[in-house]
Design brief:
Layout: E1 4-14, H1 23-26, E2 27-38, E3 41-47, H2 48-51, E4 61-63, E5 68-71, E6 73-79, H3 93-106, H4 111-128, E7 130-136, H5 141-154, E8 157-161, E9 163-164, H6 177-191, E10 197-203, H7 211-223, E11 228-233, H8 237-246, H9 253-259, E12 267-271, H10 277-285, E13 289-292, H11 294-300, H12 307-312, E14 318-321, H13 333-346, H14 353-360, H15 362-367, E15 385-388, H16 394-401, H17 406-416, E16 422-427, E17 430-431
Parallel strand pairs: 1-4, 6-7, 7-8, 8-10, 9-10, 10-11, 11-12, 12-13, 13-14
Antiparallel strand pairs: 1-2, 2-3, 5-15, 15-16, 16-17
Helix pairs in contact: 4-5, 5-6, 6-7, 13-14, 13-17, 14-17, 16-17
The structure holds zinc ion.
Zinc ion binds near residues 77, 232 and 270.
């Protein structure tokens, strides 16, 4: 028998992309909506007035009169193995990797440790309303086994891969081109497409992979076209200079990726801060995506991502929003939306609250090539839903009640809210908070 469940309350959804259409038209605020879930999917969504009469008889109905339903958040770039070095202060990217990241990632050779951290990580994602995440493991295949096996019970959509590094990393964190091929292949066969799990081929960045290993990444994508590719790109100027020295024959950083066949749909690159016009053009025209990680960029002092240029160039680059924990400072996508706004302001630009929410939902889905499946409240999509309720935070509740409209409400929320307002979370129709 089909299992129906329905949610009722105010809701925010999108009828368009607020980077293309005016945000006031793209964002839809229903003051009283119904969302019908069936077998993990959204079976119907719309104004309660119209839908109430059409609900199947006896369907369980949960109401959130003081809440706001919205699509589940999508974190398009995060390192679960760096949870333990969040807030490790004192360095920029390359030194931070050496002083904090590599020693911590070494611990993930121990599967029990990896499992413990994976559980903490997935619990926190659900608590923050994140229903999909693109996650980096460590170089150890066991770290990804631990994450996927925990994610199976958590019900979240997790795209992940083992980090590939065959140079410029310390002993104990290195693989080889051949071993990375064998391990990735085995992980793909074990996990990719199992429930909500998907595999991402994950070379850390071009400075830690030899051309032979990049060739392995290209071949894996060719052999398994349903998989993703995730890596880092142009995060700091020191890194950009290093990459220039390592690949003197390439025009620029993006050319290194293109030369090695690593651009295209379902390729998601973290950061992309110090890009040239040419590089942005190549990313846009190949449908490659950028994961914008504002809290991480502020914490490490990496730079200010030029979102306006990324979105305005030749049809626009696909951009998702990401926490990039542990360089990122919080797994909260609401706080990350607020940071994206602040970074835009520091660049002398603007970011409408509807655009910030889009980056955390529909834009993230686009960056992962999953915009028919997640990122909005629409019939046929996965029932990934966050219900926000500001009433546990008295002053914020008061502020939000004075909001001029849904945009003002959303602006206050992303600027000042924390996880206390994340009231209920559904992942594929299952309540996970
Ligand atoms: Zn990262």
């Amino acid at each position: 028998m089909t299992q129906f469940r329905a949610l009722r309350g105010p809701a925010l959804s999108f009828r368009g992309d607020p980077f293309i259409d005016p945000p006031s038209e793209a964002l839809v605020h229903d003051s009283d909506a119904i969302l019908l879930m069936e077998e993990g999917r959204i079976a119907a969504f719309g104004p309660a007035e119209a839908l109430l009469r059409r609900l199947p008889p006896g369907v369980p109905l949960e109401t959130f009169p003081s809440g706001m339903m919205m699509p589940g958040f999508i974190d398009s770039h995060v390192h679960f193995a760096q949870l333990g070095i969040t807030g490790a202060c004192g360095h920029g990217l390359l030194e931070w990797l050496e002083h904090f990241t590599f020693p911590e990632e070494r611990k993930f050779a121990d599967e029990a440790y990896a499992q413990r951290v994976a559980r903490l990580f997935l619990d926190e994602l659900a608590r923050q309303g994140t229903t999909t995440a693109a996650v980096y493991g460590t170089v150890h295949a066991a770290s990804v086994d631990a994450l996927f096996s925990e994610a199976q019970t958590a019900g979240l959509r997790i795209i992940a891969g083992k980090t590939m590094m065959d140079r410029n990393a310390p002993e104990g964190l290195l693989d080889t081109a051949q071993s990375s091929y064998d391990e990735c292949r085995a992980l793909i066969e074990r996990w990719h497409g199992k429930g909500r799990l998907g595999y991402a081929v994950t070379p850390r960045f071009v400075a830690t992979s030899t051309p032979e290993q990049m060739e392995v990444a290209r071949v894996l994508r060719e052999e398994f076209p349903g998989c993703w590719l995730q890596s880092h790109l142009s995060e700091t100027t020191a890194e950009v200079n290093w990459v220039r020295q390592l690949f003197p024959r390439c025009i620029d950083y993006v050319d290194v990726l293109e030369t090695h066949g690593l651009l295209g749909p379902r390729a998601i690159y973290g950061h992309g801060i110090h890009l040239t016009h040419r590089e942005r053009m190549r990313l846009a025209s190949t449908d490659s995506a950028i994961a914008h990680c504002p809290t991480s960029n502020l914490f490490l002092g990496s730079g200010l991502f030029d979102l306006a240029s990324a979105k305005s160039i030749a049809g626009g680059i696909r951009v998702g929003l990401a926490t990039d924990v542990g360089a990122g400072t919080s797994l909260s996508m609401l706080r990350t939306m607020g940071a994206a706004y602040e970074v835009a302001r520091l660049r002398g630009a603007n970011l409408a609250p509807a655009q910030a929410l889009w980056l955390a939902t529909g834009g993230g889905a686009q960056s992962l090539g999953l915009d028919m499946t997640i990122g909005n409240l629409r019939r046929g999509m996965d029932a990934d839903i966050v219900v926000v309720d500001t009433s546990p935070v008295a002053w914020l509740d008061w502020r939000c009640r004075q909001a001029r409209d849904a945009h003002d409400w959303l602006g206050a929320l992303m600027t000042a809210a924390d996880d206390r307002v994340v009231h209920a979370v559904y992942a594929a129709g299952k309540r996970v908070k």
